[in-house]
Amino acid sequence: MIEYALFFASSCYGVALLLDLWRITVGPSAADRILALDTMVINVIALLVLYGIWRGTAIYFEAAMLIAMVGFVSTVAYCRFLLRGDIIE
Amino acid sequence: MSLGGGFLFLIALLPFVGALVPGLMIRAGRNACAVSTAVPTILALTMLSILAPGVLRGEVVQAEIDWLPQLGLSASFFLDGLGLLFAGMILGVGLLITLYARFYLSSEDPMGQFYTYLLLFQGAMLGIVISDNILLLLIFWELTSLSSFLLIGYWKHLPEGRQGARMALAVTGAGGLAMIAGMLILGNIAGSYNLTDILQAGDEIRASEWYLTALVLILLGAFTKSAQFPFHFWLPHAMAAPTPVSAYLHSATMVKAGVFLMARMWPVLAGTDAWFYIVATTGLVTMILGALIALFKDDLKALLAFSTVSHLGLLTMLLGFGTQAAAVAAVFHIINHLTFKAALFMTAGIIDHETHTRDIKRLGGLRQLMPITFLIGTIAALSMAGIPLFNGFLSKEMMLEEASHTDWLGSHYAVPILATLGALLSVAYSFRFVSHVFLGPVRDDYPSKPHDPPFGMWAAPALLALLVIIIGVAPFLAEGIVTSAANAVTGADLHPHLKIWHGVTPALWMSAIATAGGAVLLSQHPKLDPLWNAAKRPEAKVIFDKLVAAIVSTCRAITEVTHNGAISRYLAIFTATSVVLGWLAYASGGLPAPTRELLPVAPVIFVGWIMVIVATLSIVIMHHHRFRALVLIGIIGLSISAGFAYLSAPDLALTQISVETVTIMLLLLALHFMPKVTPKESSLGLKLRDGAIALAAGCGVAALSYAFLMRDVETISGYHLDNSYEGGGGTNVVNVILVDFRGYDTFGEIIVLGIAGLVIFALMHALLDGPAARRLINMDYSRDRSKDRHPLMMVVVTRVLMPIAIVVGLYIFLRGHNEPGGGFVAGLVIAIALLMQYMASGFAWTQERKRIEYHTMIGLGVIIAGLTGVGSWLAGAPFLTSAFTYIHLPPIEEFELATAMLFDLGVFLTVLGAVMLMLYSLSRIARFAGETVNVEPMSFDPGEQDEEKATP
Amino acid sequence: MHWIILPVVLPALLAPLIGFVMRHDITLARVASMTGTVLLVAIALGLTALASDGVTHIYRLGDWPAPFGIVLVLDRLSALMVLLTSTLALIVLIHAIATGWDARGRHFHALFQFQLMGICGAFLTGDVFNLFVFFEVLLIASYGLMIHSGGKARMQAGLQYVVMNLAGSTLFLFALGTLYAATGTLNLADLAIRVPEIAAEESALVRVAAILLMIVFAVKAALFPVQFWLPATYSNAPAPVAALFAIMTKVGAYAILRVHTTAFGPGMPGIEGLAGNWLFPAAIVTIAVGAFGVLGSRHLTPLIAFSVVGSMGTLLVAVAAFSPTATTAALYYMVHSTFAAACLFLIADLVVTRRTSDVLYPEPATVQNGLFAALFFAGAIAMAGMPPLSGFLGKLLVLDALREPGLIGWAWTAILVGSLLTIVGFARAGSTLFWKSTALPVPQEDGTDAVAAAMPATSTQVAPVMLSLAVLAALAIFAGPVSNFLEETSAQLFDRAGYVNAVLGPVEER
Amino acid sequence: MLPRLIPHPLLSLTLVLVWFGLVNTFTLGNLILGAFFGIVIPMITAAYWPNRPTIARPLKIAEYILIVLWDIVVANVQVAMIILFKPEPDIRSQWIPIPLELTSAEAITVLAGTITMTPGTLSATLSSDGKAILVHCLHTDDPDTVREEIKARYERRLQEIFP
Amino acid sequence: MEIIVASSIGVLTAGGVYMLLRLRTFPVILGIALLSYAVNVFLFASGRLAIDQSPILSPYGEANYTDPLPQALVLTAIVISFGMTAVLVMIGLGAYLEAENDRIDVDLEEANNASETGTRV
Amino acid sequence: MNFFAELLVSLALVISGVFGFVGSYGLVKLKNTLQRLHAPTKATTLGVGGVLVASMIFFYAKTGHVSVHELLITLFLFLTAPITAYFIASAYLVRNLREDDLPKNEGDFGWSIYNDPPEPDPDR
Ligand code: NA
Ligand code: NA
After folding, report:
1. Closest partner CB to E70 (pick from C157, C163, C180)
2. Which of C19, C61, C121 shows the shortest C-beta gap to B878?
3. What does the alpha-carbon distance between residue B173 and residue C418 come to, in Å, rounded to a whole number?
4. Contact, C228 vs C301, CB < 8 A?
5. Is the peptide bond before B952 cis (omega within 30 degrees of 0)?
6. Is C154 exposed, middle or buried (0-12, 13-18, 19+ CB in 10 A)?
7. CB F7 within 8 A of CB A4
8. Is B742 exposed, middle or buried, given 0-12, 13-18 or 19+ CB atoms closer than 10 A?
9. Positions of chain B with pLDDT lower than 70, given as ranges
10. Model confidence pLDDT, tens digit, residues B478-512
11. Which ligand has the minimum distance to the alpha carbon of residue E77?
């Protein structure tokens, strides 16, 4: 049963990633692209955790956590660039 | 080594050692300078005269020291008749020239330099004539080119001097290089570069298939040096040199180096048709052409120069005949030409010096004003004309004698007639020298009123003139040296008898015709001169200059078209080369059969694949919007690190994603100062070219990786898996490899990071101290910026988030040895945590709160890592040998301590320091560009305002 | 027995101290840097003495056995290269300090030491990936030195230099990936065992690796068609840096010698004739490129840079023969051309700083015109391969070593015609700079004229040039003993079995 | 003394918990290590958090968290419906400015965060004096209800937590 | 999987090379970045591909592990290329600020004329 | 692992999957940027939340001892998501809207993006 659930969930996130990709490429506004990238990060985190469950290992947990962290930082950086130009003024 | 050998070395060495002296002695005055120059020459002469008797008896003095045996180059010298003759000439004339120059050079001329160059040249020249190793000979040969370059260009400020020097260097240098090749071939045939060995191997060489090549190459060297047609043109231009130089180099010695070489190689190279037709013909042509031109030159020195060319031609022709008698004649004429021509040059110098002109048309009637000079000049000139009782006559007779029975392409008359013509012309210009300069009425329009020079100046030519007569009337005095020299040339045992009267021979008739004809021709000179000047002839110098100019501009064009500063093209070439060569290498080898199955692909992975490809293509398509491209790069980083995690590389996943983030930060920071869009400027053609290259590269790399992905290979990493825990004390094999098995790589790697930090810091300073600073200050951010500089929410959240991030960083560091993580990732995580703080409240504000010395941090990191490595020396183990132990102190559970962790700490500090130093440098630039430093952590804190109100 | 690592560890520990502790005190930094360099020379001498016993000395880092850990290998060749590096470094450093170049920007000495560390590391390592790492170390340090003290032209040239080398490093990694995928090892000795075992019909991957590595090294060695970057870089680099870079091209040549004799040596079925086939013609063209550049340059420093390209061509022609004799010649020429190039760049610095530009155009004679002329003349004849300095012998050695009828025609023509063009080029430049200038009126001492204001060069400023000329002279005088050593060096280089046994231990122990 | 040793007790506690979250095993050694970090790190970073927000009635915090979590679940479903089934043109988004009584930065942050995390509303920006917040509402017909609900449901409670 | 990886490497390389050959500094930097992605994956792939065989020694006895060495090499490569990229970015910025344009090709004609002080030799 | 646990895990996974999808679907469907900004909060909250809950239950059921580090990620996301949204919104407002496109603030200061903050009193 879990296998199917895993498959369903990962497929959902796979499709989600493709939708994000579409949004990034078409934009139109820079904010849209950043938003889509941020969403992508979230989806990848979910996928990593799913993968961890599938493989029954916690090895990918750090990756997920780190991605969450740097994802946030880079999103803020992108936005600050649009807002102020200098991201660490 | 014999005493004689020792002398030989000294003779070769003295001039070079002596060359140092004049430069220093000049402070002691011109006389001291001249004397100090004469001393080594005199010493050498004395030693030579000590050796002379033996050599004249037919002995050969030899001396050898190994120099470069691998090459077959040895410092070996030998002195035989030929060497003795030339050495004597070089030293003797050298001495006279030294004396003469002392009075000739004016006080403005740097005399020390002159004598230094002179001695250098003398040494080089001596080296040529006594070398017993052709490679050594080559060295001296090139040295004569160089030192003559300096001597001809002695009057640097005169364009003629500079151009003459460059021309001489180019022509003789080219010849010299050709000769190098020829000599090497010769040596390879003979199996030795020793002259004595080569002289033995004559038949072998003449038989070799390479003979003609070697011959031509060597003759190129000889002809250029001895100004043989068509290389004769450089010599007159070399006359721009001071007269002593012309007298020494361009009549007595250097130009005879070619002749010497032909004489030297005579036993080896001569005697074949190739030799006869090339050498004799060239000589004949040169003789006539030189004489003809000389006749119509108005510049005294030019006249003498071309007469020299003509006489060199004569000598070449004689050697070309290849008969022993001709060789004897050549040797004898060498001596005679030396005496009268040097005397003539000095006379010309005196006239120039006294009248301040060398233009024959402005001279005449000097007989009355300068009787001594007249006497000397006339004697020398008559000898040059070949008038009996002067030595020139004797050797000319012998020449005509040889010419009279030499066939050329089956014709009996060609050579005799042409030889006579040559003699005739030489009579004409010799007489012209006397009559147009000395005879005739005294004029009142000399640029300066002439009179005989001081004794010192005419002593030298007078001595030579005396020799002219002595040899002329008592030739048997010269028999000894001529014999030994001739024997050295021919390698035979000859006993020539030099007599004035040979009876009525064809030669006598020929020279009679020549003399009479010459006189007649001269009488017609006034009529012929305008015709000659009107006649169109190719001007050698013009052609040469045009040629050089053409070559230079071609080289310049090629260079500037190929190295035009277009790095994009360089890179295209580089990539294309790699692809093409890589493909050729691949195609010329084969592949074993695949040994692996394809791994299954989960659908999500397929999605990741699409993400990478779409992102890459989008970047390529819309990279003109730079910010957009940066966002798109994010996708790739994300997908790749996810992919790494999926493909069992958690460490890579962590590192990739954090590096990617920091990189993007740096790019954003830089983009802030740069244009936000890339102009569309590359043409369609360019795009297609690059597209094609890119496509090829992509396919190549893909194919390559696919090729090995399907094939297993036995690798060394099994050892790492087996020994990671027992030997390295860690279960994360990757990290153990990094900090232990290949810790040395990591050591280098963190040093790269440390250097990067330094470079960026230094660069920042270079920018802020330079003109860039002005541009930065004038930079304006007029475009709509948010007024909310440090949003309240961000600041507040960071206050919690940053400490958490730091804990995460420390965690990742501590577990790195056994689980994914390690110093590098940890360093980046902490850096990112700090970045959060910077983005919340600004770099400057944060820095003011807590100053961290990033330089020190990097230094500390590198040093800790280094010392950890060095520490293992104490244990007698090699650099970076790790040690670890498990500590157990209840109630805490067992934990591990490893030196590798100390090393990792170094890594950690370096990474953190480097990243921070980069950010620091960038924010320094930003503040230079007018960013202000905020005093508050956030744009506006309503809470604090209220506290204000609450507490009046 | 830790001698072997010292050339790496000493600067690696000294540089941070200079860069981070002494960064506010140039005098202290100078003293430290000078001391370190002198020590390095001493160490290098020690290592050369150590290596001259003919034994291949091994240093196992982390005490891990080869091929699993990284080993340093000290044989005559690596010792020679380290000695060459340190000597050159000392000469250059004196110039940098005497002329104050080091104070015209930040962190000169730290970067200088790091640079030395990188170069020595590259010469000593026995592991191809470690070679990559130290290439990067020396490169990134060289980036810093290249743009030292900044300025528009230098910054742009620096940018191009960095980009070119980043491309090179990327290719290096592609090559190493292919190599590991094909052989499963990174250790040179291990490669020397595994590569010959690869059958010709299964050799595609290793062939690709070999040729890609060749290209990577060729970029460093300025071999056609990847030499384009060099002139702009060298002529825009600060003079002492340009002089130091004389060794950088040699790093490329060394790498080709080392890797393509030991790992991809002649007589291996898999990569038969791969290296030489491409190297030889490319080297011939390189000579031409260099010679044309020398004759065609409008500026002094590019002229010298092109002469460096030409000399690399000559050097690589000899290398391409992959025979002990030719390698001996190549090594001799390598040592010679390193000092010749450095010498010329240092002279050029003395001259150009006393002129308004380095355009080959007569300007009123500067102070010490005669001295500079003499020095330039000496440097030029060395570089052009004229006697009496070592260039001529080097040239003869190379010519003499290339006796195969196939080679003679092209090689000899290229080398001889090349040196003729070079001679003429230098002669023209020299006569313009030093002779023509004497014809011009010396400007009034109104201080406005840069040339008039030029200070005479101090003896310490001239000393480095003199030193390098002295080295060149010594190289010529003691050519015999020197090439004895070099002959043994190349013999050792071509003794693959000896190398393998030294690194991996005798066959039965493996 | 204590305030200087532990400037932000809650933060310290969080860090200890975070540490356990990371190591994911409860051992004495980890407790010691965690406690160490919990004390040291806030001390090092104290400079970046100058003022000390006073927190009254910690129990309220738990209540608040539960309420928010519940709202998140509910609102998620509602919004999911809108996104999935509501035809695009019928979606009426609104700007809703909300004046604030809250004054402490921390409180305002929490409120804004809550608004964003509960789907359907989004705090887009504050007024430059931090006394009002501009909320974007995905779909509503009367903004006033939304404003009232936010003020009543969250802001009031936060006022109690951060007096 | 192998095809996926190989083709991704190919695409990244192609994109990287194309960008590397552009005429402005910034795209070139992007090209270098793409290339380093490509080469990192390439180097990683030289250890062949494996799923769920992380080289973290498991406490429970025997297990299969992927080749750890290439991973270590890639880590080193990543770090180095990070340092290099950082320097490249800064020098690019420096060149832009000095030259007031971010063309990466230098027009030597221009440079020559700038430094011309007279006719050629 | 007992059926109940499996059921819970599967349920959580399905829920998570659905909301994860909805988040990105909204990103595509909704017509203007600010509306789109609402969508991903689904993925963040219930999406990832669901997966993490699933993971916690799964590992508890598998190994027997509680795994809490999933909570870390949750904490992280809850702390950061509002900021992310705030920044993206501001970025959009700055680049695409002017102040008068927005409703006026009753207070005496305009919205922070378009207006400088009030001067802090000089004596502080
Ligand atoms: Na590391
Ligand atoms: Na690493």
Report:
1. C180
2. C61
3. 12
4. no
5. no
6. buried
7. no
8. buried
9. 1, 780-783, 945-952
10. 899 999 999 999 988 888 888 887 778 888 889 99
11. 2
Measured distance between the N- and C-terminal CA atoms of chain D, rounded to whole angstroms: 24
Please give the Cα distance from C150 to B759 (Å, whole number). 11
Interchain pair C363, E46: CB under 8 A: no
CB contact under 8 Å between D83 and F25, yes or no, is yes
SS3 percent helix, strand, coil of chain F, rounded to 5, is 70, 0, 30
Note the pLDDT of residue B1: 59
CB B601 within 8 A of CB E1: yes
pLDDT band at E117 (very low <50, low <70, confident <90, very high): very low
CB burial of B358-383 (b: ≥16 within 10 Å; e: otherwise) equals bebeebbbbbebbebbbbbbbbbbbb
Q: In B770-898, which ranges are continuous DSSP H helix?
A: 772-778, 792-815, 823-841, 843-849, 854-874
Query: Nearest-CA distance from E113 to chain A in Å?
Result: 37
Q: What is the DSSP string of B433-483?
A: HHHHHTSS---S--SS---PPPHHHHHHHHHHHHHHHHHHH-GGGGHHHHH
How high is the pLDDT of residue F120? 64
The residue ranking higher by pLDDT, D157 or F66, is D157
List the alpha helices (DSSP H) in B714-790: 717-728, 733-736, 743-769, 772-778
Max CA separation in chain F (angstroms): 68
pLDDT in tens, B584-603: 999 998 999 999 999 999 89
Distance of alpha carbon C250 from alpha carbon B611, whole angstroms? 44
**Alpha-carbon span B184 to B182, nearest angstrom:** 5
| DSSP, residue by residue, B501-520 | ---S-HHHHHHHHHHHHHHH
The Cα–Cα gap between E75 and E83 comes to 13
**If 0-12 CB within 10 Å is exposed, 13-18 middle and 19+ buried, where does residue F5 land?**
middle
DSSP C456: P
Q: For A39, which of F14, F24, F72 is closest by C-beta distance?
A: F24
Cβ neighbourhood burial of C63 (10 Å; 0-12, 13-18, 19+): middle
Chain E partners of B763 at a C-beta cutoff of 8 Å? 90-91, 94
Counting Cβ atoms within 10 Å, is residue E109 exposed (0-12), middle (13-18) or buried (19+)?
A: exposed
At E105, which amino acid appears?
Answer: D
Residues 6+ apart with CB under 8 A from B662: B828, B831, B832, B835, B915, E82
* Alpha-carbon torsion angle E71, E72, E75, E80, nearest 10: -130
Copy the structure tokens of residue E76. Answer: 């080193």
- ipTM summary value: 0.95
**Which uninterrupted H or E stretch holds B67?**
strand B61-68
CA angle B90, B96, B102 (to 5 degrees): 125
Give the whole-angstrom CA distance, residue F44 versus residue F40: 6
C186 three-state secondary structure: coil
Strand partners, C359: C299
Using an 8 Å CB-CB cutoff, list chain E residues near B603.
none
CA B278 distance to own-chain centroid:
33
Two tokens, residue B566: 């277009």
C140 touches chain E (CB under 8 A): yes
Cβ-based neighbour number of residue D97 at 10 Å: 18
- Three-state DSSP at B75 gives strand
Q: Which amino acid is at B361?
A: K
Distance CA C248, CA C241 (A): 10
Nearest partner of B105 among B302, B244, B221, B276, judged by Cα = B244
